[in-house]
Amino acid sequence: MRYNKLIGSVLFGAIAVTGTFEGLRNEPYQDIGGVLTACYGETEGIRQNDNFTDMQCAQLLAVSLSYHNEPLEALNYQLSPNVHIATLDFTYNLGTNALKRSTLYKKLKNKQDACSEFNRWVYAAGRDCRLEENNCYGIVVRRDIETRLCTGELSVKEALKLLGHAETDKQVLSDL
User: Fold this and answer.
1) Within a 10 A sphere around the Cβ of 63, how many other Cβ atoms?
2) pLDDT of residue 24
3) For residue range 95-141, what is the model confidence (pLDDT) as tens digits?
4) Widest CA span in the chain
5) Cα distances (angstroms) measured from residue 31 to each of 20, 34, 40, 65, 82
6) Share of the chain above pLDDT 70, in %
7) Phi and psi based region of residue 150 (left: phi greater than 0; alpha: psi -120 to 50; beta: remaining)
8) For a FRET experiment, which of 20, 93, 126, 155 has its CA 20 to 30 Å from that of 172?
9) Which Pfam family name is an example for this entry (predicted)?
């Protein structure tokens, strides 16, 4: 049996949380690490002169979330929806290789509480994002929300409110 499929409310929650954290930019830009990025944080195959529609960006996000979910599908048990969404957002932000090398993933594989591990990842391009002058404090906020989602302290709906997400689809948000 395969666990942790990206379907239903977990899929909606992951799209909402990760999409809100990443933000939508239809034209390429360089992220904090100097990587050419577009849409909802996509980096694969992005070229300087690309331009994407909102629909293309949404499709890229869905495909990318599915790819980043693969290590979670390899676990031999079902994660709770909040742990799943928090870990998937973490993986989307840092990459599957970072997840696979992390203590967080080792703890998940051993069915241990991994929620305290998110806040250890507060660096971007070698900068400590806890320091205001490094202009990357959003990473600290992201890790805090991932941690609180993981522990169940926050629901997806509450996390989105903290992020200033506009409630454009009340039915989707009520399902979370």
Assistant:
1) 12
2) 97
3) 999 999 999 999 999 999 999 999 999 999 899 999 999 999 999 99
4) 48
5) 16, 5, 12, 19, 27
6) 94
7) alpha
8) 93
9) Phage_lysozyme
Q: Which two tokens stand for residue 25?
A: 């930019």
pLDDT of residue 173: 46
User: For the chain, what is the domain count?
Assistant: 1
Q: Is residue 174 part of a domain?
A: no
Per the domain annotation, does 86 fall within a domain? yes
CATH number assigned to the domain comprising residue 126 = 1.10.530.40
What distance in Å separates the CA atoms of residue 138 and residue 143, rounded to the nearest whole number?
9
pLDDT in tens, 85-97: 999 999 999 999 9
With respect to residue 162, please indicate whether it lies within any of the assigned structural domains: yes
- pLDDT reported for residue 171: 45
DSSP characters over 45-74: T--TT----HHHHHHHHHHHHHHHHHHHHT
The DSSP call for residue 42 is B
Q: In which domain, by residue range, is 161 found?
A: 8-168
Task: Categorize the per-residue pLDDT at 73 as very low, low, confident or very high, splitting at 50, 70 and 90.
Answer: very high
Asked if residues 147 and 86 have their Cβ atoms less than 8 Å apart, the reply is yes
